[in-house]
Amino acid sequence: MTDGADDVILALQPAPARRVVGTALVGALGAIVLWLAVVAPPAAPLWHGFLLGFGALALWGAARIWRATGQAVELTDAGLRASDGTVIAAFDEIEAIDRGMFAFKPSNGFLLKLSAPASRAWRPGLWWRTGRRVGIGGLTPRGPARAMADAIQVRLAMRRG
After folding, report:
1. Would you list the domain boundaries of the chain?
2. Predicted confidence band at 8 (pLDDT cuts at 50, 70, 90)?
3. How many whole angstroms separate alpha carbon 61 and alpha carbon 41?
């Protein structure tokens, strides 16, 4: 028997095509920059080092995007968590949700405002958390992200009223 806190109400995960395209674009950027650094190295050693570092960083970023987007964001009675069990935000910490056009939020996603600052965390293409802000979205489809945002907004309204 479960207590209800672990039951997943909604899950938000990247579409397979978006996952592949997003990772491939960042990986291609890294490969092109590294190729440029090897085939046509700039005369200044500082620029050559910059190109090598940036290319390696982009390839590392592509690997992080691929790993992160293999997970999902799950909405439970307790709050939001990643499918690996990482707690993103508990419901009692969420003060507001912002889905406005001019909000600093991931594409196809939404922004949560927390009551207290939380530790920084980042799963590229899926979610990020810094200070009192949590961004959900990125490579996720718009419809399921909107449904999750609606469910959170209803839960917040019920808590207030």
Report:
1. 11-68, 73-160
2. confident
3. 23
